[in-house]
């Protein structure tokens, strides 16, 4: 069964690119959101296995959203991302409830797939 992923980023062009990339990695993007509020609603409705969350969102930040998603009643694997490679460290991502951080320019490398599926 494919790992279902919620894609959270305010840049529609990036979401389109990430959706295609994740699909090529064998992951199923089941929903997209451009804001913290939309992401929280989509996660509750869709119950994805994982979420790829941008740190910079127009109505909040990815760290706060990650804490909110990590509190949901199922094991949601969350990976933070940003175009700024220094926006997070592994420790800061984990302290928010994410399994890791991958800079956007490193997403095609495959590390994001491993983090999202848990292998």
Task: Describe the protein in words.
There is one protein chain. This protein has a single domain, classed as 3-Layer(aba) Sandwich (Rossmann fold), CATH 3.40.50. It is globular, with a radius of gyration of 12 Å. It is of the alpha/beta class and 119 residues long. It has helices spanning 12-24, 36-46, 62-70, 90-96, 111-117, and strands at residues 4-8, 28-33, 50-54, 56-57, 60-61, 77-82, 100-103. It starts with a strand and ends with a helix.
Query: What string gives the helices and strands in order?
Result: EHEHEEEHEHEH
Using the coordinates above, name the CATH class. Alpha Beta
The share of residues in extended strands comes to: 25-35%
Q: What spatial form do the alpha-carbon principal axes imply?
A: globular
Cα end-to-end separation: 14 Å
How many domain regions? 1
Q: How are the strands of the biggest sheet laid out side by side?
A: 2-1-3-6-7
The largest β sheet comes out as: 5 strands, parallel
List low-confidence stretches: none
The CATH superfamily is identified as Response regulator
Q: Quickly count the helices.
A: 5
Determine the structural class based on helices, strands and strand pairing: alpha/beta
Supply Rg: 12 Å
**Which percent range fits the helix content?**
25-40%
Mean pLDDT: 95
Number of beta-strand segments: 7
In short:
Helices cover 39% and strands 25% of the residues.
């Amino acid at each position: 069964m494919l790992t279902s992923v919620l894609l959270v980023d305010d840049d529609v062009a990036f979401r389109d690119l990430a959706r295609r990339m994740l699909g090529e990695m064998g992951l199923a993007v089941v929903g997209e959101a451009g804001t913290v509020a939309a992401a929280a609603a989509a996660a509750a409705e869709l119950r994805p296995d994982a979420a790829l969350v941008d740190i910079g969102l127009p109505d909040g930040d990815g760290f706060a959203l990650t804490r909110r998603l990590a509190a949901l009643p199922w094991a949601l694997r969350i990976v933070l991302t940003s175009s700024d490679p220094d926006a997070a460290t592994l420790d800061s991502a984990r302290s928010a409830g994410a399994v890791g951080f991958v800079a956007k320019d490193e997403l095609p490398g495959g590390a994001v797939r491993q983090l999202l599926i848990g292998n």
